[in-house]
Amino acid sequence: MFSAQFRGSRTGNAYSLDEVIYRDESGGLLEVEHDMDALRQRSASDWKKLFESRSGAHQWPFASGVWGKKEWLLPGIADEDIVSLNEGWTNLFFAQRLGAHLGLKDLWVKLCGNSHTGSFKDLGMTVLVSQVNRMRRLGVPIQAVACASTGDTSAALAAYCAAAGIPAVVFLPGGKISVAQLIQPISNGAVVLSLDTDFDGCMKVVQEVTQDKSLYLANSMNSLRIEGQKSISMEICQQFGWEVPDLIIIPGGNLGNVSALGRGFDMMLELGLINKKPRIVVAQTANANPLYLAYKRGFDKLEPVQAKKTEASAIQIGNPVSYDRAVKILKKYDGEVYQVSEEQLADAAHLADTTGLYCDPHTGVALGALFQMVEQKKVSANDRVVIISTAHGLKFSEFKTKYHEKKLEGVTSRYANEIIHCAPDVEKVKAALYDRLRK
Fold first, then answer.
1. pLDDT at site 73
2. Closest by Cα among 234, 198, 194, 202 to 219
3. pLDDT in the model for residue 221
4. Among residues 143, 137, 139, which one has the least CA distance to residue 167?
5. First to last CA, the chain
6. What gap in Å lies between CA 114 and CA 59, rounded to an integer?
7. Residue 437 CB coordination number (10 Å)
8. Looking at residue 366, what is its pLDDT?
């Protein structure tokens, strides 16, 4: 009854999802197009009831927050072809104390990093690897799945391929990702190639390598990834009882996540599950800010930059593949773009930690944008605001340790919590303890 296909963003030509293809004849990226007339045969209230009935279900594959929306993502796949690690249904954290500090009554953090590999990339990778699993069963000669990565994509690809028994190949920029991110694909058995370049250089290599159709491309220019990631929008609304937040802030690098967020809202609006749009804001680090620079010029065109070192390493990208998709969504959703310095992202992440969170640096970038918006009075006290946290802070323990040791370059560590070194003498311990508690 329900179906989907690839559609060329420039030519409008249609292609099967079972075909190894990423761009149309003009070079434009593909989009996954659903049969919306078929989806409209079920009412909005019936869709809500179906999705609610699958929440917390133990029936395969609906325990997954992604596959609970199967008909909206990859409707033609058989359940036995699905590769799922129970991704999704992540915590929507009520950041009450942080909100109070900022003068906001309704601040939330969507903890997408509370997932199998510790990042939101799991949401897209379950869809892509499941489709590859189906294609291999149908006889499509795919030998391995490959990606360029700044860490999180490679971890997700390696884990899902390992679960499916499919070889994975990852290209990483040498010396530019955390130890935790590096060891994940190694542990899951991927072929790991460390290249003496940055992410953009790795992306160029993987696109050339995957011209061999036996190697399937898993980066977010492949719109199957976008399909899984758009479930974030649906989860947020469902967790709010199908109410739409006023503002969503998301960190942006290669920009697939921005377009995914908008696609999720597009579908809910078109099928009547919601009746208003949120504002969508993208936050970039000042050291890798091509979208921000284009935004300041009225989105005239993308001018790639040489990305500089940033603690937010997953978005250290100077030539984002999904730029056109992201701009389209930002224009539709009253969007803005902010840039955040290294000190701003570090202080924002660690201020949030003092209120019960444990933020990775990319969440710090999103929070840094929120702090600017509050200062500029672009957020009202009663606005419902959602920060998209894309990865778990445990993957960035070096960043957090250096912050508290005041060893981050160019950062003063305003909220550092230094360890008290003290002799094992009760009076000295008490003196040091009470001195700290009085501060």
1. 96
2. 202
3. 86
4. 143
5. 65
6. 21
7. 7
8. 98
Closest C-alpha among 373, 358, 296, 360 to residue 330: 296
Token pair for 333: 């959703």
Q: Give the pLDDT of residue 414.
A: 94
In 60-129 the beta strands, taken as DSSP E runs, fall at 92-94, 106-111
- At residue 396, the pLDDT reads 93
DSSP string, 139-191: T----EEEEE-SSHHHHHHHHHHHHHT--EEEEEETT-S-HHHHHHHHHTT-E
Return the half-sphere exposure (C-beta side, CA atoms, 13 A cut-off) of residue 38: 10
| In the chain, where the domains are located | 92-118+245-256+273-404
Quote the tokens at residue 391: 């990865």
DSSP letters along 114-144, please? SSTTSBTHHHHHHHHHHHHHHHHHTT----E
Q: Which helix (H) or strand (E) holds 46?
A: helix 44-54
- Beta bridge partner(s), residue 31: 7
Given a cut of 50, the residues of the chain with pLDDT beneath it are: none
Taking the model in full, what pTM does it have?
A: 0.94
Whole-angstrom Cα distance, residue 284 to residue 257? 13
Is 419 in contact with 405 (CB distance < 8 Å)?
A: no
User: How far is Cα 417 from Cα 425, in angstroms, rounded to an integer?
Assistant: 22
Q: Is the dihedral of CA 397, 400, 404, 410 positive or negative?
A: positive
* φ, ψ for residue 92, nearest 5 deg: -100, 100
In CATH terms, 92-118+245-256+273-404 corresponds, of 3.30.9.10, 3.40.50.1100, 3.30.450.20, 1.10.760.10, to 3.40.50.1100
Q: Which of 275, 292, 294 is nearest to 283 (CA)?
A: 292
